Here is the input.
Amino acid sequence: MSTSLDPKDGSPPEGANPVEKRVLLAAVFFTGISLVLIAYAALGLGVTVPTCLPNGTVFNHGSVTKLGARNYEVHFLAKMWGFEPTHVRIPVGSTVDVYVTSKDVTHGLQITGTNVNLMALPNTITNARVHFDKPGIFPIVCHEYCGASHQKMNGVIEVSNQVDDISAEGLPAQTGKAVAEDKGCLGCHSEDGSTGVGPTFKGIWGTTVQLADGSSRVVDADFVKGMILHPNATPVKGFEPVMPEIPVNDEEIDQIIEYLKGLK
Amino acid sequence: MKTELQKPLQKIILIELLVPLALLVFGSYHGVLQVLYRAGVIRAAAFAGIEYYQGLTAHGVINAIVLTTFFAVALGHALVSQELESPLSILGAGLSLTLMLLGAVMAAAMIFAGKATVLYTFYPPLKAHPVFYLGLAIFIVGSWIALYTWVPVYLRWRRNNPGKKTPLAIVGMFATFIVWQICTLPVAYEVLVLLVPWSLGWTTGINVLLSRTLFWFFGHALVYFWLLPIYVLYYTVLPRLADGKLFSDFAGRFTFMMLIVLSTPLGLHHQFADPGISSAWKGMQMVLTLLVAIPSMLTAFTIAASLEHGARQRGGTGLFGWWQKLPFFSADRWLFSYLFCGLAIFLFGGITGIVNASYSMNNLVHNTAWIPAHFHLTVGGPIFLGILGMSLFLITGILKKPVLSRQMAVAVPYIWTSGTFIFSAGLFLGGVRGEPRRTNMGLTYLNPTSPSYRPDWWITTHIGVVGGCIMGLAVLLYFIVLVRSLAGSRSPALEREPFFIPPSELYHDEKVPALGNFSPWITAAVLLIVISYYPPISDIVKSNVKATPGYRPDSPVAIEKMQ
Here is the structure.
């Protein structure tokens, strides 16, 4: 056989080598099969990679939304060093559209045991759809280096037979409530509609309040922020100007605002 | 008869090999520490004054950038001068060396000072000290200058040798640096135009997605830049070490030209999970990535056929029996074991790479421990072993000193290979079970007192510890061989003969005129890059993503205030 490597064959053959040609053809053939299978997975089975979404829909807070029966949307906000929400509980048989963005640096979000594996970049969003048909704990891990405490950044999706609807922990409204309790706000402002030293928080978001100087203001983010930072600059009609200045940072103010929005 | 390399060039090559090997002491130390931190054997944010992520940055920058680039330049100097039988411009080679040393020292100083704990990918908006970014840029520019000293030598050779085939080793080295020149342009733009002014505080905010995309334009071609010099060794040195001839000259030329074309327009396969890039462009670059399998399979066949030729010269027979006749443990052919073990590892590196590149299959493994498992079978396999072996060969050859402790020198690659296989097995298994890469897992996931504790990751991370420690042992033995050989005296027998890198003869030659010229392949590369990268980059620029302020790795509060 002319292609044998036996030294007794003497001088090497001239021209294109038939074995080499066959190897090249085989390489092209196997690569082609791989491509066909990948295309089938993406187009036939619908297992695909994220594509470009409009940036206008970038969100600043995590949230969970019910779209229909066992059909939910979860917005994860990745930030140094945790996810918002931290823990999501859903019933078995749920289909979830996962959206993710970052508040600060580059993060990653993988839901272990699923095909959801996304990068979280600031000012852009990305998404994936996932169906949970078995109960269990599905850990969420940040898999991109995001600073000194990267190893602490994780969360959980809990798929359960015991629940009928979605619920979540670690959302800003809940964090906001914790902040409001921690800073003592709830000592004077009630959650149940009763008037205390200050007006109740219940249903206050979006209403118009009369100020002591006769003007009126809508309770929006600017107003709440102003009240917290400079409590007695614009006292509300009917209440004593006794609110203390309590040190809070921008993030905590944001969380309190989210909490107020939710107190309908 | 080949002539000796010029004395000053010999000195330059020695420095270019010995400096990164000295840095490798730190690079390898931090490699071993990584597996210990990951498994919770070390359960701390820092060890011996160096923080986990700082050590990881050092491990990546030293082993993957500094060592590999210095080696490619040093090997290129030796091969260009030897194969084209011409002295090189010492001014050029010296300037290249000076800039690379300066850049490496700047980057290393910032890493060890804790001012650049941003990992070797330096993803903004994590912000490092400007000296770190500048150091990397100067280092890269230094490596460009090496190429510029070779180009006139090559053009002169072409003029003086009309119709003669360019030596295969030269085709390989030029392919290496053509890929490098193309792929480093966008990262130089990222560093000099985007990152340095931002890091100095002259600009506020950074386009994170654009920076990532420019980085990965460079980041995957980088791996071919690592690999191509090793392919040169496989095609030109390895067959001779096995007493064989290169089976096919065509395969080598075809592979090098194909890699010029395909090395760059495929970086998006690192960004399959990214927002802001259409899945159509991700898909297109996935196809181009898989096309690399064709020259790779041809190379696997050609090298195996060349080894078979050598083994049959050595008395091997039978369909498979000839394998036994290869000089696996020959002390005289110690370099064979480095190249051969690298090939054995690379088989698995290549196959797992196809997994990563296979579009939606990447969802399973993206950024998990699977990824470092894969690239420790590529850059940590054929590339690292090729660099270790060839550096020892070049250093002792230039110094005319015999390699001492040759048995130990032969053992190093086998120990390294067993360590790498064990290490990677742990990380592959851990990766498909969700272990993240680049994470100080001992503090949380491998800490029984932490709420994040993952007992199911105990076994895989500890397999990683076993493998990593064996890899560390192999490097330690290598350094013993190197230091002993350096400390030994010159051999009069070696001093009588000029030192050169022994190129293999051809078994099978074939004239393919299209492979005789770089220009059509460079043109094809540029065209393919424009077609596959212009649309996604233009989308990113046009989509007007808001700029992001910078962050220090230790604080969630932005450094800059954005308007």
